[in-house]
Amino acid sequence: MLLRRRARMLRWLVPARLGPVWMWKVLLLFVALAFAGQLLGVIFNKSVHPVTRSIFSSPDAQGPSLGSCQPHNHIMFLKTHKTASSTVLNMLYRFGEEHDLRFALPLGYQLGYPLPFNAHRVKGYQGPNAVEFHIMGNHMRFYKPEVEKVMPADTFYFSIIRDPVALAESSFAYYKEVAPAFRKTKGLGDFADDPMKYYDPRLRNNHYARNLLWFDFGMDHNINFSVALAKHGVAMIRQTFKLILVSEYFDQSMILLRHALCWPLDAVVSFSLNARQQKPSNTGRTSGSWVGRAADIAIVGNKGGIPQFKALPNMSLTEEQREKLRRWNALDWYVYKAFNQTFWEEVTKFGHAKMEEEVAILRTRREELARVCLKDGGKPVEAHRIRDKSIRPFQSGLIKILGYELQPGLDAVTRAACLRMIRPEIQYKDLLDAKQFPRAPAAQAQPPQDAPEADATHRHFQFTLATELKRTFLKRSPQLLMERYHFRFSH
Ligand SMILES: Nc1ncnc2c1ncn2[C@@H]1O[C@H](COP(=O)(O)OS(=O)(=O)O)[C@@H](OP(=O)(O)O)[C@H]1O
Predict the structure, then answer these.
(1) Phi, psi for residue 401 in degrees, rounded to 5
(2) Could you identify the atom of ligand 1 that is nearest to the CA of residue 425?
(3) What is the pTM of this model?
(4) d(CA 102, CA 436)
(5) At 311, is the secondary structure helix, strand, or coil?
(6) Three-class SS string for 22-35?
(7) For residue range 351-388, what is the model confidence (pLDDT) as tens digits?
(8) 274 CB less than 6 Å from ligand 1?
């Protein structure tokens, strides 16, 4: 009796809770279809349209129409020092790599700098026009007859300049321990007050301290200033260089460059490379670069577990000292003013409204790419915070050169494109070198040939060498090592 009642209860409960069998069948069919759909979607997306998922293949990558031009691919960029030229070179590296172009790469890391350029400094050079080179852009002291041996006749020449005061700040911070004229000073203001007290034109590496732009363009940077001479220099530059970009108007420069080269928007979107760590000034003002205090210190080593400190150079400048620096760098100041004017004449020809519109598009695109590619919204970070050692920027002197960390979890295509945008110059050159000369020995294994220890490319050699020495030597005498190699380790 009791059993029968329980059985009746069960029969009532089960169908009521679980529903009829046909309903289960329909449900199962739905689940199976949904699963198959998901599976197909994944397979389809991965194997048929992998690229459509990447932000780099969105229509925004092309930017506003360029008309019916053909992209330039014979390009010579004179990479002037401390002018944002590494950011520009990164774009050339990216474009060349993506389009399988051939670079006129240096044997080491610079094209013979600071000696005037010689064609034999190019790796793989076999005589005039024997090999087709597309892009040349590493540091060199310009010397046209030799460049013309390497680059085809239809090459587009361009370069970049920066306000000589800002350039002096950047150069001072970077080459403080390298240029004798800077080494002896207490700070940049001290140098500006009386440059002749510290400057000896005969000393190696002092070109970093006076008319560095003029020097990089291949002219005599110690010659006394006269308007006639300066005009002649400007005319010489104009004869060869079709476009001179201005670091202070970097985004407008990129728009002019993109139209001159007929390149898609993404080719000129970049993240600033080689930036110094910003510091608040003691007056609360920043000068476009950091203005530190004499009391600022950097840890330069570790001796017996005790950190070793060194004072950071004093970078602060009064308005009077800024004016003195303009006078000291009078040739550069003249060049800057002349090409700044030319630049704005070009913008007028291009159209101010159109320029504003395209700059806004460029900035939006950069923000978009930064959000996708970079950790923490693209905030530059100190080298030792970058976990991937292969993308740590080179460190010079006591100041910190910042780099970027990639956003984790990117798909392979996006990651590769993002990585290109933040790969530091030295590592990028190595990568291109290895691609162009697959069986050749690594460049950094060679002893430096180009120039003295100040040569930025040799800094990498020093870095490599010092890294090897680090374990055995640093513990015993970090200070000695710092002085010998002029740089600070980024752990
Ligand atoms: N996009 C953009 N716009 C404006 N300024 C920029 C940009 N990218 C890099 N920079 C600044 O350029 C300075 C580094 O210049 P270079 O890369 O030419 O240096 S180097 O000669 O190759 O060492 C360095 O200047 P300082 O920070 O004043 O030292 C960079 O911050």
Answers:
(1) -95, 125
(2) 22
(3) 0.79
(4) 7
(5) strand
(6) HHHHHHHHHHHHHH
(7) 999 999 999 999 999 999 999 999 988 889 899 889 88
(8) yes
Q: Whose CA is nearest to atom 10 of ligand 1?
A: 84
Beta-strand ranges (E) seen in 91-166 are 135-136, 156-161
State the chain's maximal CA–CA distance in angstroms.
Answer: 122
Q: Answer for the pair 365, 266: CB distance below 8 angstroms, yes or no.
A: yes
Mutate to test the pocket of ligand 1, among 78, 79, 81, 87 (most ligand atoms within 8 A of CB): 87
User: Which residue's CA is the nearest one to ligand 1's atom 30?
Assistant: 275
Find the DSSP H helices in 48-75: none
> What's the length of the chain?
491
Q: Alpha-carbon torsion 254, 260, 264, 267, what sign? A: negative
How far apart CA 463 and CA 482 sit, in angstroms, is 11
pLDDT digits (tens, 9 = 90+) for 147-200: 999 999 999 999 999 999 999 999 999 999 999 999 989 999 999 999 999 999
ipTM rounded to 2 decimals: 0.99
State whether the beta carbon of 253 lies less than 6 angstroms from ligand 1. Answer: no
- Which of 76, 70, 69 has its CA nearest to residue 134? 76
Indicate which residue's Cα is closest to atom 17 of ligand 1: 86
Ligand 1: residue of 175, 274, 423 to mutate (most ligand atoms within 8 A of CB) is 274
Ligand 1: nearest atom to the Cα of 250: 3
Q: Give residue 92's pLDDT.
A: 98
Q: What is the pLDDT of residues 23-36, one digit of tens each?
A: 667 667 766 665 55
Pocket of ligand 1 contains residue 276 by CB under 6 Å: yes
DSSP state of 482: H
b/e string for 471-483 if b means 16 or more Cβ within 10 A? Answer: eeebeeebeebbe
The torsion defined by the Cα of 392, 393, 396 and 399, in degrees rounded to 10, comes to: -80
287 neighbors 281 (Cβ within 8 angstroms): yes
**Best residue for ligand 1 mutational test, from 83, 162, 207 (most atoms within 8 Å of Cβ):** 83
